Model the fold of this input.
Amino acid sequence: MSADDWWKHGIVYQIYPRSFQDSDGDGIGDLDGIRARLDHLVSLGIDAVWVSPVYPSPMADFGYDISDFCAIDPRFGSLGGFDALVRDCHARGLKLILDFVPNHTSDQHPWFVQSRSDRGSPRRDWYLWRDPAPDGGPPNNWLSNFGGPAWTLDPATGQYYCHSFLKAQPDLNWRNPEVRAAMYEVLRFWLRRGVDGFRVDVLYHLIKDDQFRDNPPNPDYADGDDPAHRWTPLYTADRPEMQQLVAEMRRVVDAFSDARSSRVLIGELYLPLARLVAYYGANAEGVLEGVQLPFNFQLIGTEWQARRIDRLVRDYEAALPAGAAPNWVLGNHDKPRIASRVGAPMARLAAMLLLTLRGTPTLYYGDEIGMTDVDIPRAEVQDPFEKNQPGKGLGRDPQRTPMQWSGAPQAGFTTGTPWLRLAPDWPTRNVAAQTQDPASMLALYRRLIALRRAHPALNQGAYEALDSQADLLAYARVAQGRRLVVVLNFGTGPATVPPDLVAGYPTVLASTAPARAALIDGALVLAGCEGIVLGPA
Done:
């Protein structure tokens, strides 16, 4: 593959920095800790490291409330340490992607401090301010994603400011050209330091309705659902003006691309399929001017059943604009881990699915060893989402626990006390132990990634859906005249593969079952939760 299109075929690995590796004993992961563990990522075989926010922050939302977009929080290190991380990544052939959080700032950011100081402040219009409703309450019915109204009254100036998340995270006014110019300069600051791209946080939230109209009722809302979903976010998300902003953002990043390597934008977008693919930004001539990778989260929320996933993949492939690069995600710092959602045996099948579908896969740290969600006692809860709406299962601490490196104290993550408790299985489920076990989840991930890198059919080939039945999902990947067949058994019991699906493909290139023979002789029967990649003789 050419150097300039690495993001089309590479593998992205997400690091939640607080939980990856602590280098100084304070119990919080940091940049030097990431540097110390880069060789693990090289041995895994990934291509790019996405690091969640490391900017200065009061940590109301653990780094997504930013008080300075162009610096590093001392908890994580320094700009010098960041530059060293960039150098170390590039020296190992790894790309580095940063989180870009453009929707809001911290309420302690100098911009907001100035904005709220006076109605006549030159930065007043950098944020969304509105007079109270006639009854003195919020200006409209918009809700915060973290619970309660999306408006907080500032008594000093007598107006409400908008916040799509915590009240400590006031929303920027992206209709203001000064705001856009300032945020684009943030991108340039980090691009000049050598970063290879950005994952753009809640991209679809940037523009709100210019008339501040009430959101309509959500007809699918039921008692017990997340209260933030009571209204359909018609006027607070995915507004028509977003496409112009995305194209502007793309032009800023493209200016730093060259023949050696292109820079990439990855958009966080929880949207229906038709709206998701619009963020590729296909213009009237079919040129893609949007983000190169609108995150495709469908595997996170779908029913884990062969027919459902088969339809999901077919629909996604059909919806992609010409020339668009697909992508797939199994988990992230906001959603329960895949091993907790589907169970350990099925998580192995999920790994094969992720790494053999067409498009760019994103791995979440710890999934390569099968880490699971951890029950966090109420007294130890850190996540503001859980604190604001306790007991609803919305908290994100369980999937953010420290990486399990070894059987050493604190799983080798820290010499101090971890900021979140470790999973109870860390003495046995860790990188060091699984490195010695050829049947482990880590060994499976390494084999699958190596297979993907070795075969153009897997890392850049076309996707060919195959007819299958019952609990079996089957498809082929084709490139340069070579065809590979993938068959996945989503059932818990054995399943016989129809002979016509695999005729002429007796060579086992990979299986989730470690004892699987290298050649198929006779009928192919997959064990429950087994997946297999087959090649020609």
